[in-house]
Design a protein that fits this description.
heterodimer, A: alpha+beta, B: two-stranded antiparallel sheet, 3 strands, about 35% helix
């Protein structure tokens, strides 16, 4: 039987506010345990939550960027469950009236086509603390610094049909929240996390199969592997006569498998009810307009502008706008190079991109700054160095040997553009290879490359290739 | 509306309350009577009534995003039953 995979994602994005969603404690990552957990975060008796205006503003921005409806009135609810990292015994979340709902994103797939993924809703809620099991005998350590950190839970429609689509969608949201500046997207620190609802159904069947919820998907690689594993598992279960159980499953990256977390009978019995400590949130047109005015240029618009402004191909523009950091770097390179848009695109994508990949670095940690790279491109553009020599200069900059101009000077890499000097080398190459000259003249024009190579070798790569070409052609046809 | 003993057990478990088996019958009948009492509200036609999220008819006031709390860990942990290395210790939880 042919099976169809159905996937919906719940993405938790920690909002990049300074303080928590309901308290004035800091949200900075990495502090000593419990030094950023105040009385409100600890759920001490008598405390009251007060909502952070910026968390609301960030949620509105996300809604605007994804075509969601911003609810004029939304309500916080208590989601009740017991766990030691949730001191109040309930999580303040939103249930019936989320802050934004009903948008969509266009996701670009590997084959270049794009797919619409619907957004059911995105709601505000508070993060829980952290449980630390390792290093303790018979007890668990609780760090509540994370408790109360604002989260935007972004819930998609079950629109994805493969693990690859799910990853593409997740990347799209990841890029978007970073563009918007509402989440730092740091998956290692847990700022951007994902649960996946996965089910299978016979191809052509209308109704959905029973789904499992996969947790702990904290990297793009894992989400793809976990979903693929889970799909195989569910198909195996059904094909061997069993039934998929609706449950939560944990992905174990070390073993590359998912396993049942708890088949709790009370699953999803969270007994939501409106939080009496919080009044409904009212968002007026002025709030929306303020958020709209703060929206940065979004990926699609930037891509379009790059194509027009820098005459880039759709694919190059797409690669350069995949993240805001790369786009900003690219534009800084163009500026430093005095407008070499196309050249800058090649260098950022191919040479810099390759070098960063090999060293497993993010562009933010690039040893070569945008100003340095732009400065070097200027020297290619004004013929001080050839593209070939530029690779050596780039390598030297990568090794921290300074700016392009200093390296060119120190290593004597300046291109020879003195026609007399090049002519001499051209004549020498012709004189030393009479046989090839004869063949060339007999019509084997491909040999031009051979002569260019000879001259470039004689000049140690420093002759201007265009000039060499031109002079050779002229001399050889004499 | 009447609750079964099984439902009472489930509700008690959700609230992490211990209930003796011998008390289940009386809890079930008492809780059922409370529900019946509230059920009188079901007679009112609420089709035109907007669900009430809060008895006070006002909107939530927001606070500016600023860090106003300082570290009071030592004070808070003085009342905790068990702490180590700044962490609150609880009986082992395993997922």
């Amino acid at each position: 039987m042919e099976w169809e995979v159905v996937i919906g994602l719940e993405i938790h994005a920690q909002l990049a506010t300074r303080s928590k969603i309901f308290s004035g404690a800091s949200t900075a990552y990495g502090a000593e345990p419990n030094t950023q957990a105040c009385a409100v975060d600890l759920g001490l008796p008598g405390v009251l939550p007060v909502l952070n205006a910026e968390a609301v503003n960030m949620a509105i921005k996300f809604g605007l960027a994804t075509g969601c409806t911003v609810a004029p009135r939304s309500v916080f609810a208590r989601k009740n469950y017991f766990y030691p990292d949730l001191p109040k015994g309930y999580q303040i979340s939103q249930y019936e009236l989320p802050i934004v709902h009903g948008g969509e994103v266009l996701v670009e797939l590997e084959d270049g086509s794009s797919k619409r993924v619907g957004l059911t809703r995105a709601h505000l809620e508070e993060d829980a603390g952290k449980s630390l099991h390792e290093g303790f005998e018979g007890v668990t350590g609780i760090d509540l610094n994370r408790a109360g950190t604002p989260l935007l839970e972004i819930v998609s429609e079950p629109d994805m049909r493969s693990a690859k689509e799910a990853v593409a969608y997740m990347r799209q949201i990841h890029s978007l929240v970073r563009y918007l500046g509402i989440c730092d997207g740091n998956m290692q620190e847990g700022s951007f996390r994902c649960d996946a609802n996965v089910s299978v159904r016979p191809k052509g069947q209308e109704e959905f199969g029973t789904r499992a919820e996969l947790k702990n998907l904290n990297s793009f690689r894992f989400i793809e592997r976990a979903i693929n594993f889970e799909v195989e598992r569910q198909i195996d279960v059904i094909e061997s006569g069993g039934q998929v159980v609706q449950e939560t499953r944990l992905y174990d990256a070390d073993r590359n498998e998912t396993r049942s977390m708890r088949t709790k009978e009370e699953a999803n019995d969270y007994r939501y009810f409106p939080d009496p400590d919080l009044l409904p949130v009212e968002i007026v047109e002025a709030d929306i307009e303020r958020a709209r005015a703060e929206l940065p240029e979004l990926p699609d618009a930037k891509r379009q502008r790059f194509m027009e402004q820098y005459a880039l191909s759709d694919s190059d523009a797409g690669q350069l706008t995949a993240s805001r950091e790369v786009a900003d770097y690219y534009e800084a390179v163009v500026e430093a190079s005095a407008g070499e848009g196309k050249l800058a695109a090649n260098w950022v994508i191919v040479e810099l991109g390759g070098a960063l990949n090999r060293s497993d670095l993010d562009i933010a940690d690039s040893p070569v700054s945008a100003a340095q790279l732009g400065g070097m491109l200027k020297r290619i553009a004004d013929n001080t160095i050839s593209g070939k020599i530029a690779k050596d200069v780039f390598e030297a900059m990568w090794q921290g040997e300074g700016d392009a101009d200093a390296i060119i000077e120190a290593k004597g890499l300046k291109q020879v553009t003195d026609t007399g000097a090049i002519e001499a080398m051209v004549d020498e190459a012709i004189a030393a290879n009479p046989k090839q000259v004869e063949q060339y003249k007999a019509g084997k024009e491909k040999l031009l490359g051979f002569f260019v190579g000879q001259v470039m070798k004689a000049s140690k790569g420093k002759a201007n290739p265009a000039q060499v070409n031109e002079l050779l052609k002229k001399r050889l046809s004499d | 509306m009447s609750l079964s003993n099984k439902e009472v057990e489930n509700i008690a478990h959700l609230a992490r309350l211990g209930v003796d088996a011998q008390d289940l019958d009386s809890y079930a009948s008492n809780l059922s009577r409370i529900l019946e009492f509230v059920e009188a509200l079901g007679a009112v036609d609420t089709s035109d009534v907007e669900p009430l999220a809060h008895p006070i008819d006002m909107a939530q006031r927001l606070r500016p995003d600023a860090v106003t709390e300082s570290d009071q860990r030592e004070l808070f942990q003085r009342v905790a039953p068990s702490v180590e290395g700044g962490l609150y210790l609880v009986p082992r939880v395993i997922e």
